[in-house]
Write a structure and sequence with these properties.
- The complex is a heterodimer of chains A (166) and B (548).
- Chain A has 4 helices and 7 strands.
- By secondary structure, chain A is of the alpha+beta class.
- In chain A, strands 5-6-7 form a 3-stranded antiparallel beta sheet. Chain A has a two-stranded antiparallel ribbon with strand order 1-4. A two-stranded antiparallel ribbon of chain A has the order 2-3.
- Chain A is globular.
- The relative contact order of chain A is 0.19.
- Chain B has 548 residues and is an alpha+beta fold.
- Chain B has 10 helices and 27 strands.
- In chain B, strand 7 and strand 8 form a beta hairpin.
- The longest helix of chain B has 27 residues.
- Chain B is globular.
- The two termini of chain B are 50 Å apart.
- The chains are: A alpha+beta (166), B alpha+beta (548).
- Chains A and B meet through strand 1, helix 1 and helix 3 of A and helix 1 and helix 2 of B.
């Protein structure tokens, strides 16, 4: 379950994004990830929540699957579903590579201040740490528990549910 | 067409540009939207919109190109020909779609039997050019020509049989204008087949008109359509004969005040009265031949005589060769006489014919010249040196001729076409047959292609019409462009020669640095730059490449 640390932030005038994941009720099961539907009013996100969403989207996108943006994403998911990651050690290694790639991709746009505007400190990622992880070979599930640290010093831990080969 | 472009045609560069523009536009109006990579807005809003924007930009560019012939000319390699045709349709102009070459092949077979060909029976050259029959043909020794059957002949030495089969190229293009003697093979099984070769040069093969060519002729094509000025005569004839198989390469109209217009001075004082127009029409690129089979009557020892009627080769310019019916001549005109090497010697006497009942003004006292190269000329040909004592002997006769002269004469004679106060006569232009012998030097570290040089010279010479001169320097430029480093212009390096037959029957030879028609001009024999075109057969151009 996501954890948060209460603090006071002024979100007025912030750049916003649409919320990708409407809710993660029980993050350890595949079916419980629901994507925004056109039947539901779109929710917007900003601040650290927007950062988490952006990080997750880039981490879970697969390289060379986005038309006209072949460099977007990582090989983490494709390695998982492809059965390349056979043990916990390989998972740590794959995450480290993917995490580095996500940082690079985020920095590419973040550096273009004249195009995309300034970023508040709580939207600038400084570190992503894999706190806990597990591979459930019986149910073909992978658990990743990641801590994101922003320039403002806030931490938000979130859980990324994904499938592995059964 | 523009609407046939899809997202698959959008390049990464075009997408990146469109995406950048969209981000700027959206951020200007909605600065609160975060459009960085990895955001949902970027994925769901910007990226699809950028794809469509890039596609629409492509389509707009294509549309802009297709709205202008000049723009299409700049993109000639990629443009859809249908787009060109659409613009030309606005001016009532149709692009030439090209034409298939036609000709005859001599097919040799091993026995006397009946051979049947269905339409589409194919013959192939070694280069893979395909020619085919276009109708049913039955070949046998007792053929009935009136029913379209083809006669099977026994060869002179009795070792094989042969027949002459008409063929048409399977596709349009000038490369199908194969020369006499070119070997062909039957594509399908033909029982008893021995060999086949082009009986005479194939003609009529024409490349599809390029955009640059159609742009060049557009001013004439959209000009006032009446037989009045040079431009309008050119336009009206080109327009009418477009797509008919008669391809007008160049025209020269000689009328009031022109020195080679003799027909408007038929009065005691000899002053010009106008209303007479002689139209010299180049309807061929390279000199084109018509093949005749003539039966000569013996008139003396080894001498035979026959008549080339005015309808057999209308307005023909000169006889290329006279030979045995089963022979092939790869003649080379260069540097010698006008008949090809290998031809029987002959004398031709031309005269006017068929003028009775026409309104054309031709002076009976000067009819040989005034009817020369028109559809109103005929000739009696006496062939000598024939090793035969038969009372009648068959000959294969090749004459240089302008295709479509009869059809053009009939057209301009129409009272709904011609100016009722004028008298138009079509003439085959006088052809200055050019021979070139050149030694081209090139850098040994690079490669040059003598065949390309030969072909480029051939194309250039055959594009020169109704101009005063052809010079060695013009040809040198072509060779240098083809990779030659220098051309030997000394006495033994580059030789240039031309032969012209005037309307009186005299031949004139030009040679040296310049083939200047003006130096031999004789208006009374219709010989002037305005009536002469330059032409060359491929065999008359010799290019020797020397590495240094």
């Amino acid at each position: 379950m996501a954890q948060s640390y209460p603090y006071t932030v002024d979100y007025s005038g912030r750049q916003v994004d649409i919320e990708m994941l409407q809710s993660i009720v029980r993050p350890v099961e595949i079916e419980q990830v629901t994507v925004s539907s056109i039947t539901q009013p779109a929710k917007i996100v900003t601040g650290v929540q927007k950062l988490v969403q952006r990080y997750a989207l880039l981490l879970l996108s697969t390289l060379e699957t986005v038309h006209f943006d072949q460099d977007q994403g990582t090989l983490l998911v494709s390695n998982l579903v492809g059965g390349v990651i056979q043990n916990r050690g390989r998972l740590q290694s794959a995450f480290a590579v993917a995490n580095t790639s996500v940082f690079q991709q985020m920095k590419k746009d973040d550096a273009q201040v004249e195009v995309f505007g300034d970023q508040p400190a709580d939207e600038i990622l400084t570190r992503a740490t894999l706190l806990d992880f597990d591979i459930d070979f019986v149910d073909s599930l992978v658990y990743l528990r990641i801590r994101l640290t922003t320039q403002a010093g806030d931490d938000l831990t979130f859980i990324v549910p994904t499938t592995a080969p059964r | 067409m523009a609407d046939e472009l899809t997202l698959a045609d959008v390049t990464q560069e075009e997408f990146d540009t469109a995406e950048s523009v969209l981000i700027d536009l959206v951020r200007t109006t909605y600065p609160s939207l975060d459009l960085r990579r990895g955001t949902v807005l970027r994925d769901l809003l910007i990226r699809p919109a950028a794809s469509v924007t890039a596609l629409n930009t492509d389509r707009l560019e294509m549309l802009q190109i297709q709205m202008s012939l000049t723009a299409m000319l700049a993109n000639e390699d990629t443009i859809d020909p249908a787009a060109v045709d659409n613009i030309l349709a606005n001016f009532g102009v149709v692009r030439n779609a090209g034409a298939e070459a036609t000709g005859q092949v001599q097919v040799r077979v091993d026995a006397d039997r009946t051979y049947t060909f269905a339409p589409g029976f194919q013959f192939l050259t070694l280069d893979g050019l395909i020619f085919e029959t276009t109708q049913n043909y039955v070949v046998k020794t007792d053929a009935d020509p009136l029913s379209g059957e083809i006669e099977l002949f026994l060869s002179g030495d009795g070792t094989y049989y042969y027949f002459i089969l008409p063929l048409t190229a399977a596709d349009v293009g000038s490369e199908y204008s194969i020369v006499e003697g070119t070997a062909l093979d039957a594509a399908a099984s033909l029982f008893g087949f021995v060999a086949a070769s082009a009986y005479a040069d194939f003609s009529g093969g024409l490349d599809e008109e390029s955009i640059s060519q159609v742009v060049a002729r557009l001013p004439a094509a959209i000009s006032y359509r009446a037989l009045e000025s040079r431009t309008s005569i050119d336009a009206k004839l080109r327009d009418h004969f477009e797509g008919t198989g008669v391809t007008i390469q160049d025209l020269s109209s000689q009328g009031y005040g022109d020195r080679t217009q003799l027909r408007d001075k038929h009065n005691p004082t000899g002053f010009a009265v106008g209303s007479r127009v002689d139209i010299y029409s180049r309807t061929f690129t390279a000199p084109q031949t018509v093949l005749l089979q003539k039966a000569g009557v013996r008139v003396g020892e080894n001498q035979y005589q026959f008549t080339i009627e005015r309808t057999e080769a209308p307005g023909y310019y000169a006889i290329r060769s006279i030979s045995e019916v089963d022979s092939s001549i790869n003649g080379e005109l260069a540097f010698d006489t006008l008949p090809a090497i290998g031809s029987y010697a002959f004398v031709e006497v031309r005269s006017a014919d068929g003028l009775t009942g026409t309104f054309h003004d031709i002076d009976p006292d000067n009819s040989v010249i005034e009817s020369a190269y028109t559809v109103y000329q005929k000739s009696v040909v006496t062939v000598s040196g024939v090793p035969s004592a038969e009372a009648e002997h068959n000959f294969k006769v090749e004459v240089f001729s302008a295709n479509g002269l009869s059809a053009m004469q009939t057209y301009v004679d129409g009272t709904d076409v011609r100016n009722l106060e004028a008298d138009y006569i079509l003439r085959c232009p006088l052809i200055c047959f050019v021979g070139v012998d050149v030694k081209a030097y090139y850098d040994a570290s690079r490669t040059v292609d003598a065949e390309t040089m030969q072909r480029d010279l051939y194309n250039y010479i055959n594009s020169r019409s109704f101009i005063r001169r052809l010079t060695r320097s013009e040809l040198t430029c072509i060779l240098l462009a083809d990779g030659a480093t220098r051309i030997d212009l000394g006495a033994s390096g580059m030789a240039l020669q031309g032969i012209v037959r005037d309307a009186a029957g005299a031949t004139h030879t030009l040679q040296g640095d310049t083939l200047d028609i003006e130096t031999i001009a004789d208006a009374k024999s219709l010989l002037a730059p305005e009536t002469v075109v330059f032409g060359a057969e491929l065999e008359s151009i010799h290019v020797e490449v020397v590495a240094e």
